[in-house]
Write a structure and sequence with these properties.
By secondary structure, this protein is an alpha+beta fold. The protein has helices at about 1-30, 45-60, 70-75, 90-100, 130-135, 140-160, and strands at about 35-40, 60-65, 85-90, 110-115, 120-125.
């Protein structure tokens, strides 16, 4: 009886480990960095960009830059699904970041990625600021990043309408 239980547990464990191993590469291949957040939205690409720009402003952050491969491709007569990267930060955070760690300056501005899906919906993708700055192992930087986490979450959810 006990041997049968151990065989069943061993089989369940093996199946669980196999499923985890096969699922892990697929998840890692999509977004390999920890702290990556995806927020699906019902909005069309251009509508979401406008909503996101407003949410950035409404949440006291600044839109530093914006780039779009799809718009660049369209200017050459090539149509691909919409995508854009919005770079978001604010000068007081930049000063605090640099006071804490000059090398961390490469991380700013923080990015928000907008992806148009085949069904004309969009997805917002960003990395939590705490995940972006964690590798520096700096307490002041970590504290600043933890302040930014809820701001970026609110920006994404405000833009998504959630």
């Amino acid at each position: 009886m006990i041997t049968g239980i151990f065989k069943n547990l061993a089989m369940i464990t093996l199946i669980t480990i196999s499923l985890m191993i096969t699922a892990a590469p697929a998840m890692a291949a999509d977004y390999p960095y920890p702290g990556t957040i995806t927020v699906p939205t019902p909005h069309q690409f251009d509508t979401l960009l406008k909503r996101l720009e407003k949410a950035i402003s409404d949440n006291g952050m600044g839109l530093v830059a914006q780039a779009s491969a799809s718009r660049g491709a369209a200017s050459r007569g090539v149509n691909i699904l919409g995508n854009a990267v919005l770079e978001v930060f604010r000068n007081d955070y930049a000063v605090r970041m640099l006071e804490a760690s000059v090398p961390a300056g490469i991380e700013a501005p923080l990015r928000v990625y907008v992806i148009e899906n085949a069904g004309k919906t969009t997805t917002i993708v960003y990395r939590r600021p705490s995940a972006v700055f964690a590798p520096y192992g700096n307490a002041k930087l970590d504290a600043m990043a933890r302040e930014l986490d809820p701001i970026f979450e609110k920006i994404a959810y405000d833009a998504a309408g959630k």
